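Intended use. Records like the one below are meant for learning the mapping from a protein sequence to its folded structure. Do not use them to infer anything beyond what is encoded.
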Amino acid sequence: MAKAAGALPAGQAGPKPRKKAERKDLPAPQSEATRQAGGTMSGLDAAAKVLAEAGEPLGCKTIVERAIEKGYWKTGGKTPAATVYAAILREIQKKGDASRFAKADRGMFTLKA
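Structure written out for the chain above:
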């Protein structure tokens, strides 16, 4: 009887699964409490505050510009508007009716009443 390609002899286990290499040069992820202690709020909280102050639907680029200008949020990312956009959509999808945000138009968000 022919063996299947890659089959191991009876009684032998295959190779052990590799562990993901831990990067020692990267800082450990910060907890939410640590980030809040820096004096700025999360991107989503900042977006909610900006939208509440605006009282009208805004695009993510405008939301981010106002949040950074008012000191609500700090970021070193290259695409903060995309980050906030994705986070708002994720909250809407995950929380549904309990979400703080509603999609007003393409790329535009508002707070739920």
